[in-house]
Amino acid sequence: MVPLSFASRNFAVLPSGALYWEAHEALLIADLHLEKASWFARFGQMLPPYDSEATIDAVAEDVALSGARAVYCLGDSFHDRFGCDRLPQDARAKLTALTQAVRWVWITGNHDAGMIDHCGGEVVVESIVDGLVLRHEAEAHEPRPELSGHFHPKLRIKARGRRVSRRCFVATEKKMILPAYGALTGGLDADHPAILRAMGRGAAALVPVSDRVLRFPLAA
Amino acid sequence: MLKAARDERHALLVAATGAGKTLAGFLPSLVDLIETPSEGLHTLYISPLKALAVDVQRNLLTPIEEMGLPIRVETRSGDTPSNRKQRQRSRPPQMLLTTPESLSLLLSYPDADRLFGGLRTIIVDEVHAFAKEKRGDLLSLAMARLQKLSPGMRRVGLSATIADPDAYRAWLAPDGDIDAVRLVEGEPGAPADLSILTPEERVPWSGHSGRYAASQVLDLIDQHGASIIFCNTRSLCELIFQDLWSANDKQLPIGVHHGSLSREARRKVELAMAEGRLRGLVATASLDMGLDWGNVDLVAQMGAPKGSSRLLQRVGRANHRLNEPSKGMIVPGNRFEYLEARACLDAIDDGELDPEQFRPGALDVLAQHVMGVACAGPFRSDELLAEVRSAAPYAGLRDEEWEAILQLNATGGYALKAYDKYRRLVEQEPGLWRITKPAVAQKHRLNAGVIVDNVMMDVRFRNGRKIGRVEEGFGSTLTIGDAFFFSGLSLEVEGFKDADIIVRASKKDGRIVSYGGQRMSMSTHLAARVRGFLADRTQWTRFPDDVREWLDVQSRRSILPEPHELLVETFPHEGRHYLVAYSFDGWNAHQSLGMLITNRMERAGLKPLNWVANDYALAVSSLAPVTDPRALFSADILEDEFRQWVEESHLLKRAFREVAVIGGLVERQHPGQRKTGKQVSFSTDLIYDVLKRYEPDHLLMRAAWEDAKARMTELGRLARLVERAAATMVHVEAERVTPLAVPLMVVIGREQAPGGAADEALLVEAEQALIDAAMRID
After folding, report:
1. Hey, do B2-185 and B193-349 end up sharing a CATH topology, with the first three levels equal?
2. Segments making up each domain of chain B, as ranges
3. What angle do CA B766, B769, B773 make, to 5 degrees?
4. CATH assignment, A2-215
5. Which residue of B364, B422, B656, B697 to mutate against A (max A Cβ within 10 Å)?
6. What is the chain B residue with the closest CA to A54?
7. Do B679 and A160 touch (CB under 8 A)?
């Protein structure tokens, strides 16, 4: 875990792309897209039915690693609002065990808005913790500090003849977008106009490495 | 051929190019149709290239029209308009010229039995180009299907000169029965007139294109009636064309032809060439088979020929008359390639052809075929299995593999039975399978095919006219106002529309389009000859002065290895440390070696960055110097390590991407499908990661492994290379780059070492560079 300060609060970044907020013993994760594979299977693309299990296993590892007592999922936790119904037995058991073990908050996103079954935990549209707004998609005119997901940012650089591509955070002074956490989630370039529009001026991509967080300013 | 036909025997016709094989293949069918005219599909002709089918149609129509025969000959490919495709199914021509992909699609329609029920003959042209590839697997399965629909069908294979005709007879025959296929050998043609272009200046140190020789090549074009200039890749093709064009003071009419140009563009130059309006055509392998232009009198090969059979094939394009020698000229790209060119000519003089390597049929291709058969109608599992096994590549298919293929098509074939309700195939009664809904068939036909390109973007003018396609990886690096050379033109980007790049003609100097894709390795017998040249000074007298000087300086600054020795050099260069191993084992083996060495370097904390290989050597760069190369080449725990390395490499992920598409796991991305700013696609890399963790034995994981292994060297060959290393390695520590290393240092197409410490180091460095730039007060 690598320390990261945002909006005068101290966080730690996990290698998986989760954010840990020690003051509140809370783990923040975005865009799990559980049951993405089975959503595609309905239309004939038989993707491996293990994506939910892979994602849930990773969350369980992060909860154990950080010691978190609360988990906030910043939206698009299921690939569609019926996703939870399709969870395979093992994955469902693991998720239910997690939502019972810690305080679990599902913030809904565009994919899972109106979700019905959710294996426990509470469902909200957004949440405010210690003055920070937690929501799915960043709002350009939000005056309060805000944490969100939705865009699946990743950074690609080319150096000394080598290409490096990593999931990353995008942050300004008052806004931060988390990388997508789900096992089958793709990425969008951190400097994509859609991200820069949502973030406003002064955005930077934040890339955690083993001992610190690197900062790459993004041209607006 | 007529005799084989009268005896109702299958046949393999092996003849030099220019011996009129194609017509000979059709002759029995023509005779039959004249003697007993009939409606319905009589003869199928399968060609590896759409262009070839069109060309054959032209050559076949002339005699048919001159004789006033009531025989219709038509072509069918992905380019054929859909109304004609429909008419071909309802009222088929007697002769249909097509590709394996289009044939396979025809077999997926419910009327396939009616369409092919009276088929008498299938002619497979350029059989040597098919047999060892996935397209050959697909074709072989299609032939087994056709044989079932029309048991009396004769199979006829046409091939250029090959080293092992029996292997091809077995491939062609039903049930691999060699004796069922009569071998018909044509008269040998006049030996080709081959030479190496002697450069006016020096043989270049680096590159692999022969660009330096543009003006000399132009002179050659000028001295001949019509020339084909072969290049090994599409990028080089564009590059060479630009070089020739800018040196073209005499304004000779020249054109460019490769597989990523639009159909219209290709047709235009093919026609111009056929009518003698072009003096030179710069082309890739998309032309190196069968096209019959009698007026071509020179073939130039830019860069290394890679194999003796391959060169003979290409040179066979010149002077399509049997009694006259074809004239060919190799333009080596660098000094190693000069040696290879010399080795190639020696091999041809000695009558030595490229060795053949057959492999078992690919499972992803089988899955696709079975789905296609299912789309045509219900099938009995045991009957279809027997039919599949009658195709030579699948003779050894195991029962459990077959079961896995059925399950893959039905539900994805996972141990976790999550998708029963979304089935694509269902067992209607024990042993009888059918598709669950018509949408399955539509989807199958949209995604069928065994060539998986990278995602492509169309290049168009504002009026919509399509020029061709570039890979998204290249297209995404372009911004408005950028210029690039494509289709022989300089094009300036005006804008982007969906997945199209809108361009206008420009005079700007542009970048050259790059394409990914596989590389052809130098064949082993040429490698052995090149090794021999290095150690044997008496051979050097045949080389130009500068090649001799290159070898001589190398022998003084470092050493020249004996044929049994492995020379390893280490030196610093441009802020990195290099290790270069000259093992001469071909590009594929060097890829494996690169993977092996970089992994060991990663573990030794040497921070490997990337490697670059050619057919002669491997160069690895790293942030820390290698002081003890022997430790890196140790033969201990090879097999486990190798497996682990390949699993982590891009190579396996790349192979997985291909099998996932061919095997029907994910849908092909069609151009224009990608929306901007929204993730509609998902990466097969991520699917791979999930599958590797939760079901590593999945059928497609195994298929990806087979592909990756076939693409690289076999483990055995790599093991021998590494085992040999301990005893034969000669390590030279140089203070700077050596003569022998130069040709490697500028090779395009670096491979990245697997993600590791260097990634972090580079990210940290990139951040520091930004900070330094920002904080500098000038």
Report:
1. yes
2. 2-185, 193-349, 363-447, 456-512, 542-670+680-761
3. 145
4. 3.60.21
5. B422
6. B690
7. no
pLDDT at B778 over 70: no
Inter-chain contact A50–B422, Cβ cutoff 8 Å?
Answer: no
Give the model confidence (pLDDT) of B50-73 as tens digits. Answer: 767 777 888 888 888 888 888 999
B376 with B445: CB under 8 angstroms? Answer: no
Determine the residue type at A151: F
CA dihedral (B215, B218, B219, B220) positive or negative: positive
Q: Is B418 on the interface with A (CB under 8 A)?
A: yes
CA angle A150, A153, A158 (to 5 degrees): 170
- A44 in reach of chain B (CB within 8 A): yes
CB A214 to CB B439 under 8 A?
no
**What's the CATH fold of domain B193-349?**
Rossmann fold (3.40.50)
Which of B282-286, B339-343, B483-487 bottoms out in mean pLDDT, i.e. has the lowest?
A: B282-286
As for the ipTM of the complex, it is 0.88
What is the percentage of chain B residues whose pLDDT exceeds 70? Answer: 89
- Give B170-185 pLDDT, tens digit per residue: 999 999 899 999 999 8
Q: Does B685 touch chain A (CB under 8 A)?
A: no
Widest Cα–Cα separation across chain B: 91
User: What span, in angstroms and rounded, lies between the C-alpha atoms of B661 and B177?
Assistant: 32
User: Token digits for B85?
Assistant: 């495709």
pLDDT tens for B75-125 read 998 878 899 999 999 999 999 999 999 999 999 999 999 999 999 999 999
With CB atoms and an 8 Å threshold, state whether A46 touches B770: no
Residue B323 is predicted with a pLDDT of 66
Look at residue B143 in the predicted model and tell me its pLDDT: 97
The answer to whether residue B292 scores a pLDDT higher than 70 is: no
CATH number for the segment(s) B456-512: 2.40.240
Residue B762 to residue A164, Cβ atoms within 8 A? yes
SS3 readout for B334-348:
CHHHHHHHHHHHHHH
Is B698 within 8 Å of A215 when comparing Cβ atoms?
no
Closest Cβ opposite residue B764 in set A47, A187, A209: A209
B609: nearest CA partner in chain A: A162
Band (B662; pLDDT cuts 50, 70, 90):
very high
Query: Does any CB of chain B come closer than 8 Å to the CB of residue A164?
Result: yes
Multiple choice CATH, B2-185, 2.30.30.520, 3.40.50.450, 3.30.300.110, 3.40.50.300: 3.40.50.300
More confident residue, B482 or B42: B42
Question: Which residues have a Cβ under 8 Å from the Cβ of A32 and sit 6 or more positions away?
Answer: A55, A59, A73, A76, A77, A78, A181, A182
Tell me if B671 sits within 8 A of B499, measured CB to CB: yes
Q: What secondary structure does DSSP assign to B380-395, as a single string?
A: EHHHHHHHHHTSGGGT
State how far residue B408 is from chain A, nearest Cα, in angstroms. 9
Average pLDDT over residues A147-156: 93
Task: Evaluate whether A168 touches A207 at the Cβ level (below 8 Å).
Answer: yes
Residues of chain A neighbouring B756 (CB-CB closer than 8 A): none
At residue B61, the pLDDT reads 86
Q: Nearest CA to CA, how far is A41 from chain B (Å)?
A: 7
Joined tokens for residue A50: 């293990």
On whether any CB of chain B is under 8 Å from the CB of A204, the answer is: no
- Nearest chain A Cα to B622, which residue? A160
